[in-house]
């Protein structure tokens, strides 16, 4: 038996699996608070102590639900959100709460890093898609240094949540012994073996002298998820109800391991659809950087493959907001959506309610819905939002794959199992067979890497064959292809017009949407 934890935005989910049968023996969830501020809507923080307390509670609950002795669990692994960053002192104690992934306060810092990186032609920036994000590590670290002058001298290093978690569980207290995930450091901190590590220190110092010497503080042991980072300390073994000394692999981000748990293979892409959407592809090792895509990192998803990441800053959050404003819930509002045809609401939704993560990397954008009339309902808006989400994904996949289709597209995360209408719309808009795991793969990826650490399988592929859930296939409806091609043309024009200032004739947009509304599908 192995255990895996998945730290999401609002809770941690612990899964215990039997690697012999492939059965999930138990799942337990424990919440923790998300700190927001009415005075600063860009703030999003969490406390390290809250994370660890929730992990202990969920682990003990899962062990009890499985009816097993926790001493029989052979290994443990965990993934987290990212870039969720905490600054620590020389004893690796937090100096403040985490800057959670959805904390967008560092937008000015990100813009400065991007501007100087482009001016200097920094190669590392190319592999981030050409734009450094306000959601990523250096931006958040610089924001902390600028706004916490009394704590600057105490900063020994900055840590991604997945690395802080592993260090805590293994009892590691020295910066030079820290385990650092190449998934986290590659996608969010511009690390790569291609340029022998982190981006040039002189470049970072030129962004702001507060970053002088920062790379020396980001040392430690860099490793991939198929490598062991340490073993569980006696202190945390007692708190979790596990056996001391069991192996713990290097951590990673939740979406990357969710993709592994969904069965991703090289040449495939997984949309991890949850609060936001992370789009994870495993591509050939020689894949070049792609403009507008969040990052390409060797080995961040599968050993020997180039892990490529993109995403949307809000997905489930948008659906929840639409339902909340209507005084209902998403499940109720989604009833009957499957009977709606392409664009039949006459609405078009640009899903920028929390900004644009990919392709534009702009936190300053807002959601737009065009085509309203007096008869529209909240269900109409939800349908348009799902269509808009799918069309945005299509833009991203076209960019990510260089126009070539992926061998398989998988919808994973927490939402697809609950919303068949969403899956069918994605299949129709993308014009591909869409695979959806029969049960949520959240936590399965963590169990796969725990099983590798325990020596239960020779490689990731063998572990996936034993542990990943089967998939249900949604096939595109032939009759939707032409109308969705027309809608996608409108969407692309509006996306680049509003988002990038591209020349855009708006005069035909509302009349075309009205034609869809009235069933006059002129393509």
UniProtKB/TrEMBL annotation:
Residues 270-454 form the Carbohydrate kinase FGGY C-terminal domain. GO terms for molecular function: ATP binding; D-ribulokinase activity; ribulokinase activity. SUPFAM superfamilies: Actin-like ATPase domain. InterPro entries: ATPase_NBD (IPR043129), Carb_kinase_FGGY (IPR000577), FGGY_C (IPR018485), FGGY_N (IPR018484), Ribulokinase (IPR005929). Its EC number is 2.7.1.16. GO terms for cellular component: cytoplasm. The keyword RNA-binding does not apply. Pfam families: FGGY_C (PF02782), FGGY_N (PF00370). Residues 1-261 form the Carbohydrate kinase FGGY N-terminal domain. This is Ribulokinase. It comes from Frigidibacter albus. The lineage of its organism: Bacteria, Pseudomonadati, Pseudomonadota, Alphaproteobacteria, Rhodobacterales.
């Amino acid at each position: 038996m192995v255990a895996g934890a998945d730290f999401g935005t609002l809770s941690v989910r612990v899964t215990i699996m039997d690697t012999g049968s492939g059965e999930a023996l138990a799942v337990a969830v424990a919440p923790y608070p998300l700190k927001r501020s009415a005075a600063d809507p860009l703030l999003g923080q969490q406390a390290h102590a809250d994370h660890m307390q929730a992990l202990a509670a969920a682990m003990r609950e899962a062990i009890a639900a499985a009816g097993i002795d926790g001493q029989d669990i052979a290994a443990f692994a965990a993934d987290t959100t990212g870039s969720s960053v905490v600054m620590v002192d020389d004893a690796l104690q937090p100096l403040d709460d985490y800057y959670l992934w959805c904390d967008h306060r560092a937008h000015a810092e990100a813009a400065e890093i991007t501007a100087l990186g482009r001016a200097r032609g920094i190669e590392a920036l190319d592999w981030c898609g050409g734009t450094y994000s306000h959601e990523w590590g250096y931006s958040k670290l610089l924001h902390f240094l600028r706004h916490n002058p009394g704590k600057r001298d105490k900063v020994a290093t900055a840590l991604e949540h997945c690395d802080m978690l592993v260090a805590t569980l293994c009892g590691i207290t020295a910066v030079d012994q820290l385990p650092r995930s190449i998934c986290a450091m590659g996608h969010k901190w511009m690390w790569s073996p291609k340029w022998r590590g982190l981006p040039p220190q002189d470049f970072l110092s030129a962004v702001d002298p507060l970053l002088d010497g920062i790379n020396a503080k980001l040392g430690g042991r860099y490793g991939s998820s198929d490598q062991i980072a340490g073993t569980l300390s006696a202190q945390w073994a007692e708190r979790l109800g596990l056996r001391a000394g069991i192996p713990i692999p290097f951590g990673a981000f939740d979406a990357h391991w969710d993709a592994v748990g969904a069965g991703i293979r090289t040449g495939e892409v997984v949309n991890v659809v949850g609060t936001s959407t992370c789009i994870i592809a495993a591509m050939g090792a020689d894949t070049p950087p792609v403009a507008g895509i969040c990052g390409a990192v060797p080995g961040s998803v599968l050993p020997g493959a180039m892990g490529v990441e993109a995403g949307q800053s809000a997905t489930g959050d948008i659906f929840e907001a639409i339902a909340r404003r209507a005084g209902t819930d998403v499940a109720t509002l989604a009833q009957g959506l499957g009977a709606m045809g392409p664009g039949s609401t006459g609405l078009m939704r640009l899903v920028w309610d929390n900004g644009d993560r990919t392709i534009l990397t702009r936190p300053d954008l807002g959601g737009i819905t065009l085509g309203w009339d007096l008869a529209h309902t909240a269900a109409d808006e939800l349908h348009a939002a799902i269509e808009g989400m799918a069309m945005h994904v299509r833009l991203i996949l076209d960019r990510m794959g260089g126009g070539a289709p992926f061998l398989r597209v998988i919808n994973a995360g927490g939402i697809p199992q609950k919303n068949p209408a969403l899956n069918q719309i994605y299949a129709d808009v993308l014009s591909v067979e869409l695979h959806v795991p029969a049960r949520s793969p959240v936590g399965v990826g963590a169990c796969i890497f725990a099983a590798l650490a325990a020596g239960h399988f020779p490689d990731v592929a063998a572990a996936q064959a034993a542990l990943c859930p089967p998939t249900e296939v949604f096939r595109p409806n032939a009759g939707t292809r032409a109308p969705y091609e027309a809608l996608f043309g409108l969407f692309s024009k509006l996306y680049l017009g509003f988002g990038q200032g591209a020349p855009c004739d708006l005069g035909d947009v509302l009349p075309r949407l009205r034609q869809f509304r009235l069933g006059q599908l002129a393509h």
